[in-house]
């Protein structure tokens, strides 16, 4: 088992689950990161976490799920060391979560931007982070391809 300092931990941050592609993309990325040896934590709102639980009842992709506010508090108190984070963004709240993750962790953050307003949301990001964006709403495949091109599990 790797020592604590060598452990790779990634957080997948989900806000409001209003846009359907978020749930499938979170599960897909959790699967890829888990297979790459990352301890993967899914942090989200109560509704977003329930959608994940229903979609993966046997926990094939889910390693750990946490309340988003509790996760932010643990990061602020430096009780949760992370290697990187991926924030699923489709509105201003998602931008705030991404900025918070970048500020609290000072580790690589990737904003995965989706939904009808993807271009506008992308233009509103003014802090350092990687961006993967597509106006996907119902069909996750275009954004999945962009995530595969970025291959964050190889980092």
From TrEMBL:
It comes from the Archaea. Gene3D superfamilies: MTH777-like (3.40.50.10160). It holds the Pfam family DUF1890. This is DUF1890 domain-containing protein. InterPro entries: MTH777-like_sf (IPR036608), UCP006600 (IPR012033).
